[in-house]
């Protein structure tokens, strides 16, 4: 849609075929915070284009600004330089066209699963019958049908996150922004939710920007993995994952997967210039 | 995905038994208290009336309608002051918790008035507002407001920012955030504030009825004091205590219903 794809100043020299329909674009965005009498650069001059329907993961050490990047796309963090475009239109604040999934689930604890999922629809004044139908669809989509009337406190971590995903899907966003959504879950549940997320995504295709600190997760989910580096926060490189969807266990255990994972791993854990002391979080 | 269904299997019987036990202990305590009172009165201490005498006086006052009129008059004052106080406290607490400017503007006043006992304002209230219902209700209002505004403010400050962000990305504006996120999230604090406010409201009542009242439990007790009528004083005291307790229980019940979603307990 937006006039071709134009980002000649893209510093991310490495690779990647950004298709001509760029859904979400970061144009030289930066974010600084005043610290004492100086400025701390959380994110410096980052450009990135994400195609419509693409699944992109961002991985990097803590302090690389990956959450800041997502916050800007969500409209919750204002860039101090550059801008974020959604379909070519600058993002000026949060809105239901961009669904956000938080690591801490952020479910409203006083509402049942159904009422949580209906939250955005009520705000949009969707008529009751339509609201009910769309909420039910989203709840079924994430497999919480039997728990629609449960309060969040009675759900496990994985179920809470599925509820949050349903809540985001219910308002029918064009972009899903996921901020380490599975970070607080145990390894087994995480793998289940990864598969389920991909399954949901294949049925209800959306543009996804997914932040993680887990290299395996980053490679398994994405078509492209953005590796970031810290001090200042920047894109180190972008790794293409040319593995077919649907991703299966075979793919996860394949040699090709291993090769890409190793590449990303090295990019994350051996970032020579800036951050010798950063370690995994 | 394997869904391990853990139903909310809550053992019902032990809970019921615990409740019965608590109730039995409550009743035993009341009975013991009455017995102790009767014993003390039996020793002839300073003309202290016994429970029977007080019950008799309560019967008389009920029969001639005085007790009912007084109770209604007092209840009306307390409820009006309390309702106005807590209803104002919630939005003011929200403004203070949400907007730094509003907080900077309001906080000096709140903190200043909090250090002045509402009773100390009674002379001023009489001069400014006369001797009708207004000054009485005003003093009760102030007491209830000041005790609950701080709780409401704290509740708003404590609202999880992630929940606010979650609401904003779903399309909520300031109004929706206030009504649909801040109020429910702060409800536990607000309800505690209301309970404290209710205590203050009752506490201020008797003094407020010093202001040239024609009826009311506090007024009746002061009249009785003039005639050394101890049984009537006791009837007033017990009525106030029972009403306060009943209202607190109602609030507790509301609290339990409204905050059932909380993870603790």
TrEMBL record, chain A:
<feature type="compositionally biased region" description="Low complexity">
    <location>
        <begin position="12"/>
        <end position="21"/>
    </location>
</feature>
<dbReference type="InterPro" id="IPR050166">
    <property type="entry name" value="ABC_transporter_ATP-bind"/>
</dbReference>
<keyword id="KW-0547">Nucleotide-binding</keyword>
<feature type="region of interest" description="Disordered">
    <location>
        <begin position="1"/>
        <end position="21"/>
    </location>
</feature>
<feature type="compositionally biased region" description="Polar residues">
    <location>
        <begin position="1"/>
        <end position="11"/>
    </location>
</feature>
<protein>
    <submittedName>
        <fullName>ATP-binding protein</fullName>
    </submittedName>
</protein>
<dbReference type="GO" id="GO:0005524">
    <property type="term" value="F:ATP binding"/>
</dbReference>
<dbReference type="InterPro" id="IPR003439">
    <property type="entry name" value="ABC_transporter-like_ATP-bd"/>
</dbReference>
<keyword id="KW-0813">Transport</keyword>
<dbReference type="InterPro" id="IPR003593">
    <property type="entry name" value="AAA+_ATPase"/>
</dbReference>
<dbReference type="InterPro" id="IPR027417">
    <property type="entry name" value="P-loop_NTPase"/>
</dbReference>
<feature type="domain" description="ABC transporter">
    <location>
        <begin position="24"/>
        <end position="255"/>
    </location>
</feature>
<dbReference type="Pfam" id="PF00005">
    <property type="entry name" value="ABC_tran"/>
</dbReference>
<dbReference type="GO" id="GO:0016887">
    <property type="term" value="F:ATP hydrolysis activity"/>
</dbReference>
<keyword id="KW-0067">ATP-binding</keyword>
UniProtKB/TrEMBL annotation, chain B:
<dbReference type="Pfam" id="PF00528">
    <property type="entry name" value="BPD_transp_1"/>
</dbReference>
<feature type="transmembrane region" description="Helical">
    <location>
        <begin position="226"/>
        <end position="247"/>
    </location>
</feature>
<feature type="transmembrane region" description="Helical">
    <location>
        <begin position="78"/>
        <end position="100"/>
    </location>
</feature>
<keyword id="KW-1133">Transmembrane helix</keyword>
<comment type="similarity">
    <text>Belongs to the binding-protein-dependent transport system permease family.</text>
</comment>
<feature type="domain" description="ABC transmembrane type-1">
    <location>
        <begin position="71"/>
        <end position="251"/>
    </location>
</feature>
<dbReference type="GO" id="GO:0005886">
    <property type="term" value="C:plasma membrane"/>
</dbReference>
<dbReference type="InterPro" id="IPR035906">
    <property type="entry name" value="MetI-like_sf"/>
</dbReference>
<keyword id="KW-1003">Cell membrane</keyword>
<keyword id="KW-0813">Transport</keyword>
<feature type="transmembrane region" description="Helical">
    <location>
        <begin position="23"/>
        <end position="40"/>
    </location>
</feature>
<feature type="transmembrane region" description="Helical">
    <location>
        <begin position="112"/>
        <end position="131"/>
    </location>
</feature>
<protein>
    <submittedName>
        <fullName>ABC transporter permease</fullName>
    </submittedName>
</protein>
<keyword id="KW-0812">Transmembrane</keyword>
<feature type="transmembrane region" description="Helical">
    <location>
        <begin position="177"/>
        <end position="198"/>
    </location>
</feature>
<keyword id="KW-0472">Membrane</keyword>
<feature type="transmembrane region" description="Helical">
    <location>
        <begin position="137"/>
        <end position="157"/>
    </location>
</feature>
<dbReference type="GO" id="GO:0042918">
    <property type="term" value="P:alkanesulfonate transmembrane transport"/>
</dbReference>
<dbReference type="InterPro" id="IPR000515">
    <property type="entry name" value="MetI-like"/>
</dbReference>
